[in-house]
Amino acid sequence: MNExxxxxxxxxxxxxxxxxVPVLFLPIFSFNDANYMSFPLAGFTTEHYEEMWSKRNLxxxxxxxxxxxxxxSVVSTTFALFAAKAFAxxxxxxEKVSYGAIMMPFLIxxxxxxxxxxxxxxxxxxxxxxxxxxxGHTLFCTPFxxxxxxARIEGFDFSLEEASRDLGENAWGTFFRVxxxxxxxxIVAALLLSFIISFDEFILAFFLTGSDATLPMYMxxxxxxxxxxxxxxxxxxxxxxxxxxxxxxxxxxxxVGQGKVKKDIAIKL
Amino acid sequence: MxxxxxxxxxxxxxxxxxxxxxxxxxxxxxxxxxxxxxMLSFSMFTQVSMMEIDYxxxxxxxxxxxxxxxxxxxxxxxxxxSFLVTLITLITAYPVCYYIAFYVKKNKMLWLxxxxxxxxxxxxxxxxxxxxxxxxxxxxNSSLINAGILSEPLTFxxxxxxxxxxxxxxxxxxxxxxxxxxxxxxxxxxxxxxxxDLGLSRFEVFWKITFPLSLPGVIGAxxxxxxxxxxxxxxxxxxxxxxxxxxxxxxxxxxxxxxxxPMGAASATIMLTTVVxxxxxxxxxxxxxxxxxx
Lengths: 269, 294
Known about the structure:
CATH superfamily of chain A: MetI-like
CATH class of chain B: Mainly Alpha
Oligomer: heterodimer
Largest interface: A-B, 84 and 81 residues
Structural class of chain B: mainly alpha
Strand order of the largest sheet of chain B: 1-2
Number of strands of chain B: 2
Radius of gyration of chain A: 23 Å
Low-confidence stretches of chain A: 265-269
Mean pLDDT of chain A: 85
CATH class of chain A: Mainly Alpha
Number of helices of chain A: 12
Number of helices of chain B: 14
Helix content of chain B: over 70%
Low-confidence stretches of chain B: none
Shape of chain A: globular
Shape of chain B: globular
CATH architecture of chain A: Orthogonal Bundle
CATH superfamily of chain B: MetI-like
CATH topology of chain A: MetI-like fold
Strand content of chain B: under 5%
């Protein structure tokens, strides 16, 4: 189409504003020298950021979130990699049902997952804490990771694997020396995005953490007190910057070598 | 003979596929199917006292649910809010996807990444930032008062259904943008050109060609937004006040303060059933609509 549509362009830019402006208020007010978040701004301060260093509970919650996030993202990406491979490579009976079952946790309201896990966990006589949260996060992250990996693997030429097998490499060798390096950008993208999902997840943590707060739970606890809000804003601003960086890295990785790897291999062959 | 070997091989394919799928499927069974089955059975028990549950089967909790006006009202309100959010998100996101699919030429992916980026920042923080904007001492009210336009803060902005709808529309935008864009991007532009050459007006081209062809994306967006928002907890808890409360806030109370686990389990089951029913209806209606339009 060779025409322009300035009405739609203006609308699109306004929509960008609607998406971005609310999120930007957090960093703006985190430098504001006042307890209330209202205009006009009172003055510039980094005090709220310095405050974060002295909060013991914050450090504990951060560490808890990192532990949960690392375990949940590694396990869910591993499971998702196997599953994605099955869907991309084979046609089999019950394919649609299996796909639906694995995507399910992503679709049904999270509060129902949380409540169901809570009921079984408590009735098995276990204590609430980071373990059930990690299980819930793994369940919730697997479909996300699988979607990313299927997109990666589907563009993959399986004749490369067959060639490797024909040349005498065994299944593991083929996996580690041929498939894995080609999947790697997708795998790292899936790991990073799963970690972010787990790191920011609230509902499952809210029902299942018990007394071991994760970072979103810590923020939730602080949001009720007006005088504690500024350092939540500072923390929020740091999390936003960190998340944005990781997500951009993941998006970049996801596209890395999508077309290029194939070309390189074609040239070498 | 060939048929026989093909049969063996395809069976072998099934085995290989399910071996690869087993970790993910076992996780879904152990962490979702079994817990949900247990939740279902708990919805048929009775909470006797704080610690004690009577394990005789009864449907009383479901009868209780529909006899309590509050719960039924909250269920209807949850559906209403989700419906509004889905509708507004679709209508507002559609033109954006349309623009990117048909008018943007370079770096389409970059536009798309930028559109979905805010979605990846913490949900809790996004909801919280709306509290900063809509609050009685928030950005909108304080600016309007400072500018002399208002003398008192607008109270309907905060702790209301409006606040919940606005916030959820913002929070779930990415889930409309992605499926809509994907389905619009797939449309063969020559079809639209053909429509124009044959003398259809812009509106007719959109209504008869573009829109029907983008319906798969519309259906995807409806389901992916409607289902989770029915069960949203954070937004109504932070911004809803009494007016904007939803069923999930009550479910949380049953598992927390009120401590009536069977009643909470029954409410959760009813929520899930409603969602499933509406999903089936929506996909059937849209399927018919697609057939009629194309």
